[in-house]
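Suppose a colleague, Dr. K., hands you the sequence of a protein chain of 198 amino acids and asks what its three-dimensional shape might be. Before reaching for any lab equipment, you can write down a predicted structure in C-alpha cell form. Begin with the sequence itself:
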Amino acid sequence: MFTGIVEERGTVASIEQLTNAARVAIRGSVVLSDVRAGDSIAVNGVCLTVVDLGPDYFTADVMEETLKRSSLDAVAAGSEVNLERAARLDSRLGGHLVQGHVDGTGAVLAIEPDAHWTAMRISLPVDLGRYVVEKGSITVDGVSLTVVAVDDEAFSVSLIPTTLAETTLGSRQVGDRVNLEVDAIAKYVERLMQGRLS
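The predicted structure, expressed as C-alpha cells, is then:
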C-alpha cells in the first residue's frame, strides 16, 4: 500500500526483455536507504517487488499483465520514473490509499500553465469513468491528485509547482501515456452494491 506522495525521481538503468515479462533496473537514492529484497516500491504508480539490490539501484521483474495494463512497456534506459516506498502504518497519510495496481493508461490531452499552477487534462478509459468523480482522488503515474473536473472522455487535475518539480509530471508532454489508478474504495462499493442488487 502506498500514499501517492512520490519520494524521488529515479532513472531506469536498464531493461531486459524476457518471455512475456521484463526485468528492470532502476537507480535511486532515497528509496534505497532502507530497502531489502522482497520490499515493494511503486514505479510510476506500479507496485514492483525488489528482486536484487546494488549500491545505487534495485531490480524488479515486471510480468506480462503489468506490461499490458501500464506504461512500463514503453520505458527505456534513461527514462525518469516516480518512486515511492510502501507506506508504514505509523506514518502520516499525505495523499490517499494507493494500491499500486494500475487500472489502465490515459493520454495527456492538454497542459495549461498558469501563474501558480498547471492544469492537465488526461483522457479517461471508458471502463474507468464511473470511478472518477469531481473532488475525488486519482493516481497519475504514482502521484496522488484531486480531480478538478471530469466528463465522459477525460478528467482534469491542477498541479502545484512542487509536484511539477519533484515528479515526472513536470516533464510530461501532450500525447504522453500516463498510468492511472482509480480510488479502490469506489470499486469495492460497486462490487458490494452488485451483490445487494442481484
